[in-house]
Amino acid sequence: MLSLRPNCECCDRDLPPESREAMICTFECTFCADCAEAKLGGICPNCGGELVRRPVRPAAMLKKYPALTERVLKPQGCAPEQAA
Questions:
Q1: pLDDT value at position 24?
Q2: How many CB atoms lie within 10 A of CB 29?
Q3: How far apart are CA 7 and CA 2, in angstroms?
Q4: Is residue 81 part of a domain?
Q5: Cα separation, 78 vs 51, whole angstroms
Q6: What is the pLDDT of residue 75?
Q7: Does residue 60 sit in helix, strand or coil?
Q8: Which of 27, 74, 83, 81 is nearest to 54 (CA)?
Q9: DSSP-derived secondary structure for 17-33
């Protein structure tokens, strides 16, 4: 089950569970659509995977399976990993 992280790892923008602006990779790294597109080019800076829109969990299911509240932020900023 998706953890539904509450913020963009890049700019710390709030991304509530109902947000259609949340983008995730297969490891659930979470970014807002603006950062995912403009800064990251649709690629996760952590794993190199594709960033896709995070599905919205129905409100009734949020009561049973709530979203995470712990925020994750990249203190060094957000940029794609450079190949060595």
A1: 98
A2: 19
A3: 14
A4: no
A5: 14
A6: 79
A7: helix
A8: 27
A9: TT-SSEEE-TT--EEEH
pLDDT in tens, 43-69: 999 999 999 999 999 999 999 999 999
C-alpha 57/C-alpha 1 separation (Å) is 10
Domain range for residue 20?
A: 1-67
Say which residue the tokens 């995730």 belong to: 24
Question: How many domains, the chain?
Answer: 1
Question: Phi, psi at residue 64, to the nearest 5°?
Answer: -80, -35
- Which residue type sits at 10? C
Cα–Cα distance measured from residue 33 to residue 40, given in angstroms and rounded to the nearest whole number: 10
CATH of the domain at 2: 3.30.40
75 within domain boundaries: no
